[in-house]
Amino acid sequence: MDDKNARILSLIDKFDKGLATDEDVQELETWFQSFEDHPNITDKLTTGQQQKAKARLFQRIDKTIETRLAEEYHSPLQSNKSVSLWTKAMVAASVLIISTLGGYLLLNKSFEKKQAIATTITDFAPGGNKAILTLGNGKQIILNDVQHGELASQGNTIVRKATDGTVSYDQQGDGKSNIRNTLSTPRGGQYGLVLSDGTKVFLNAASSISYPASFTENYREVEVTGEAYFEVAHDVRKPFRVKMSTQMVEVLGTHFNVNTYQNTGASRTTLLEGSVAITTAGQAKILKPGQQAVVTKTGIAVSEVDVAEVTAWKDGFFDFTDADIQTVMRELSRWYDLDVVFEGPQTKETFTGRIPRSWSFAKVMKIMETFKSSHVRLEGRRIMIRQ
């Protein structure tokens, strides 16, 4: 190992031990900004070292990135203006540090002076907290248009909108009730919900959850389309079930994520804490924390996954690892309320990175220049992509 790489590894080791000085931080940031050829040293680091170093580095450079991007993209993608090497390097570092410490080295050649994915695209604002609540009598409440406070009475349950926008259900007594409500988000929407048992649900864009206003049976059951994250209130007497088109998830109290978007070809359940049982077409699997069950027509497949990547959406990020352009654009289309049309065969290039969902579409598309062989044409809110 040459002296330069030994020095970098030494700096990262200091991060790992919490001993890095301001000068050490600056030296390592300068290294990430550099576009010189460096051997990939990621395999020399432990997983813990990678995670700690990249988290601290991202915190240090994030504000700098935002400031410089605002300066350089005052009118995002409105011209063919060349982007400065400084900005490209910093964007590459900020986005790709999040996936692997050496990762940006794999993609820096994508930021060449070639025409990349697009240069003239109308900008679109990111999504936000938007949802419609459908009550048992069919009445619909557009939640982003109403003030906080009491919204409705559903049987023995009061429905409220909290000051943070979350919808919550306060069950009054133990009376029987068969009233079901539905919370649905449009493309470009997300929303938080607290069920009558205290279970917390966070709904992603283009998703819905149907549930009883109060749980009065010997089990708790909800139905989900799209994607939702659950923190289930523990109740050993009443199992909690999530029903989807192709599977059923049953738990007592745990944290997990379900993704059942129809255009992905599979339903995915990812466990963060506790234990869940997955059943479909006569098959059953028990998940452990850190595992994901993928249900397809052929059955259930279980594997280890990065749960932080799976649940990044609820924390305000897009998080991709070796994602093809179809996967990336599916995520973006739901959040920015766009239609995507793929024209002919698509590039085999992949993207790895972590991007804030608060960024405008134009800013995100600048990062997507890593798909350098793809070209974009925009017609209204429809995006055509060809190789």
UniProtKB/TrEMBL annotation:
Residues 182-276 form the FecR protein domain. It comes from the Bacteria. It holds the Pfam family FecR. One of its GO terms (molecular function) is sigma factor antagonist activity. Residues 318-385 form the Protein FecR C-terminal domain. InterPro entries: FecR, FecR_C, Ferrdict_sens_TM. This is DUF4974 domain-containing protein. The lineage of its organism: Bacteria, Pseudomonadati, Bacteroidota, Sphingobacteriia, Sphingobacteriales.
